[in-house]
Structure formats: C-alpha cells, structure tokens
Write a structure and sequence with these properties.
318 residues; mainly alpha; two-stranded antiparallel ribbon; globular
C-alpha cells in the first residue's frame, strides 16, 4: 500500500511537470528567424479590445475583478490563454522547432529528469518549446506562458494579497524547484529564464491599470494600458511586449541549473559540441544584472551552468 501511494505521488508530479517545457536556445541559434513581435503584439491588442467590448456590454460600471477575469481568457498559460495557444499552434507564426533528440537535452535519462528522460513522455512532443525571435531577443515560446500565468500569480501575491515581493519571488522559486520542472521528477532543468518571465509578467499585470509604481522604480512605469472613463473601460495605450522580453529570459544567456552534476555535465557537453558556452554572451548577462539591480539575485544566474541547491541557495537573499 505504501509503495502504491509513493508511485501515485510520483505519477502525479510527473504528469504536472510534463506540462512544462524547456527551451534550447543553442541549437541553430544563428540561423535566420523572422521577428514575430509585431504579429504577437497586434494579436494581443486585438484581444484587449475584444475583452473591453464584452465588459462594457455586460456592465454599467468598471469592476476591476471582472477586468482581470476577462483578460485572462486571452492572457494565461497554454491551457487557458488564447494568445499562448495562438503562439504555439499558428503555423504561420515564424518559429524554430527543435526535437528533443536533436537538442542539447538529447542525452537525458530518467535519472536526469523524468519529463525528458522517459520515452513515453518524450513521444508526447511537449517537452521542447519552440523558439521565437522577438524584437532583439531569442526566447522560448514557453516564456509567454510563464509571463501571463505565473506572472499573474506573482501579481496576485504581491499586490492584491499584499504579501510582499520577497515572499512572492520565494514562492515562485519553490514552484520552479518542485512543480515546474526543476527537479528529477520533472524535466531536470531549473530555469532562471522562467523566473524572469514570472517576474516581468507581474510587472505587466501591474501596468494594466498602473495603480502602483513599477517594482523596478517609477521610471519603469509602462502603464496604464487600460483606464475607466465614464464607467467604461478604455484602452489608453497599446501593449508592446518588447518592453518586457529581454536577455534574462534567454536560457543561453541566463543559464539554467540542474539537479545533479552528472546532468549539468551532460548539458555542458552538448553545448560545447556546438562550439558554445553558457552564457553565450557574458556582456548581455552583465547588462541584465545592472537592469534588475537588487532583484537580480532572485532571477539572474551569475554563476553559469551548475547544480541547484534545493534547500540553501536562496535562504540568505532577503
């Protein structure tokens, strides 16, 4: 009975972690890829207009809770958000697709991470996220999932529930370590790029109504995008996600860590096989450390590829 319970728990965690995907920003990195930013930005602003039209048609006043609920029909993870579904499923949107067997994770075994090491999960085709060229950045499409999904969770914790930034980011780190792929039961990749996407998603949701200054300082305020005028919601500024997507979300610059040295070595060997190192551009990494200031200790990996410490790495980062 005990073994059955353990197996059930492992299976549940595996299924949950398998929903997360990893990115390979190394393979074919320098092959031309058309910029998708204008297409995605345009679709996003269309969805804002559609959301506001529904809200204004159904209510005689502006209700903040209803605004977020309606927007999250379009801006959420791959299971619930239409924009992420568009990014993943629209074959006309330029994307670089890399299969697991040709990626830098090709040597993964179940001991490195069940999500990419078990054959039946590999065959599902959901472990490697496509790469998109967005403005000046090369990022995984999965970053939009984190940006909208976990970003809203951060926003809720930090602003709506007023739990504070440190507690919010620590919760996000815990989720990345335990539930979102950063351990052997998951994909075996602890992604700082995901943490940055979560953090910047929180900034985005705060900018929707801009009721608080940006967490990086008032000079970084980008909103409000939406305002209430005469009891009707009005879009007062267009969204441009190039204001958020940066090199901190590129795992070839903001390097990931791994659950064991053997796993980190497998990854490093494949990166070196391509004639690269991580970070591929140390100068850009330094720029991200400067940009995020004191927050960088939570979302930027300055140590390079290595082993994640599950219990002590962040305990002294107040």
């Amino acid at each position: 009975m005990k073994m059955k319970l353990i197996f059930s728990a492992l299976l549940a965690l595996t299924n949950q972690s398998a929903q997360s995907s990893e990115t390979d920003g190394f393979t074919n990195r320098y092959k031309p890829l058309q910029d998708s930013s204008s297409i995605i930005n345009s679709r996003a602003n269309q969805y804002v207009q559609k959301s506001l039209g529904v809200l204004n048609g159904n209510s005689i006043e502006c209700v903040e809770k209803d605004l977020y609920k309606e927007l999250r029909l379009y801006f959420a993870n791959h299971m619930n958000g239409q924009l992420v579904k568009d990014i993943l499923n629209n074959n006309e949107l330029p994307k670089r697709k890399i299969t697991l067997d040709k990626s830098v994770y090709r040597d993964w075994t179940p001991w490195d991470g069940l999500g990419m090491g078990l054959t039946f999960i590999q065959r599902s085709g959901i472990t490697i996220s496509p790469i998109i060229h967005f403005g000046n950045e090369i990022i995984g499409a999965d970053k939009f999932e984190h940006f909208f999904g976990q970003g809203f969770a951060y926003f809720t914790e930090n602003y709506l529930k007023e739990k504070g930034l440190v507690k919010t980011v620590k919760t996000g780190i815990f989720k990345e370590k335990i539930f979102l792929g950063g351990n052997k039961i998951g994909n075996g990749v602890f992604s700082y790029g995901d943490l940055s996407a979560n953090f910047n998603g929180m900034r985005f949701w705060n900018h929707i109504l801009q009721q608080n200054d940006d967490v990086l300082g008032a000079e970084h305020n980008l909103g409000p995008y939406i305002s209430c005028e005469n009891n009707k919601w009005v879009q007062v500024k267009e969204i441009d996600f190039r204001d958020y997507m940066d090199s901190s979300m590129d795992e070839s610059i903001n390097c990931s860590k791994f659950p064991a040295k053997r796993t980190a070595d497998r990854f490093t060997n494949q990166v070196q096989r391509l004639g690269m190192t991580c970070p591929v551009d140390p100068k850009k990494l330094d720029e991200m450390v400067v940009k995020y200031g004191t927050v960088s200790k939570w979302i930027i990996n300055k140590d390079g590829t290595g082993v994640i410490n599950y219990f002590g790495e962040f305990k002294n980062k107040n």
